[in-house]
Amino acid sequence: MYILIGIVALVVLYGIMIYNGLVRSRQMAEEAWSGIDVQLKRRADLIPNLIETVKCYAAHEKGTLEEVVKLRNQAQAVPAGDVAARAQAEGLLSQALGKLFALAEAYPDLKANQNFSELQASLETIESEIQMSRRYYNGAARDLNVKVESFPSNLVAGQFGFSKREYFEITNDADRAVPAVKF
After folding, report:
1. Which of 33, 51, 98, 107 has its CA 20 to 30 A from that of 155?
2. Tell me: the pLDDT tens digits for 132-160?
3. Would you call 140 exposed, middle or buried from its count of C-beta atoms within 10 A (0-12, 13-18, 19+)?
């Protein structure tokens, strides 16, 4: 009888350990997503200043500027939990920002403007931090997904409604391509 009670107690303790591990992994993934969200917000807040600086020099490039603003607003409108849609919207915004910086190459005065240079450097720093946050989030999501799918933790995960997380991935194949270098 004591052996049976001991076995049941061990099984219950093991289940509690699995549950707590799943909770820890879920919290890590949520905290990691929060880190991405903070960096994306910083980038979104920087864009209006960048646009205003470029407007002073390139007023006739209105289409490019409007596209950046439109894509920024679309990215901010994506619901907080929709990782795939947010990744897609942010990818499109990154492309538009690339066009904006290509536009700056056509305007030497803009390129030499200290305010623009500082904004561009800030944006490059934020982009780097977004990449680091994305890697951290994807690692946390991977750890949670492994626990949700692995036996025996999948039994506990199913019972308590734990689910897999989507990865924050580049959805545009052009962003994955190796740039061509020509001399």
Report:
1. 33
2. 999 999 999 999 999 999 999 999 999 99
3. buried
